[in-house]
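Q&A FORM
Asked by: J.P.
Topic: structure of Phage shock protein A

PROVIDED:
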Amino acid sequence: MEWLERISRVVRAQINYLVQENQDPEKILEDAISLMEQELITMRRALAEAIATYKQGQRQVSLNERAGQKWYERAQLALDKGNEPLAREALVNRQSYQIQAHEITTQLEQQRQIIDKVKQDLYELERKYNQTKTKKNIYLARLRSATASQKMQEVMSNLNTTGSNNIFEQIEARILELEAHSELMNGMSSDPLEKQFTALEGNHTVDNELANLKAKKLKPKQ
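REPLIED BY: S.T.
REPLY: Here is the structure written out as tokens.
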């Protein structure tokens, strides 16, 4: 699990840095997920390369084994023909290929263990990555709720510090001020002379309408 532990240390270090820099918590989560995605890509690429190397080693073992078998058959042929020195040389070549096949097989066993370990680490990282993505919205909802609660507490604290009664008194004083200003403006528009002319104009209109009615009555009918 060394690889996974290294990745975890990198992610934690990045998150701690963002926290110390007072970064937006949502950005911290996004960056953590992005970093895990990059590590997943790196691990998948490394796993693919390890598997490719392992398969190449298997092919080398197969080639060496076939070559060894071929030299063994040649040794048998040489003995059948009565050429023991040639048979000995063939067996020496066969042994060389057998040694190479054995060495590569030993290396392949080590590579297989590494591949199994990388697969396990990759599975664990994918699990944590999916878990983080799934819980991201839950974390953000809790964070926003906590932030809203903190802001509300700050508002209430300010109210308690300033004094709620004092605030309402200020509001009431402002309303009274606006009402007084409105009454003053109405009083300025109630000029006595203005009222007299308004009454005369109204009477003049009524007199005109009355004259029109009288004229209609006096007009002879056709």
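FOLLOW-UP: The first helix runs from residue 2 to 20.
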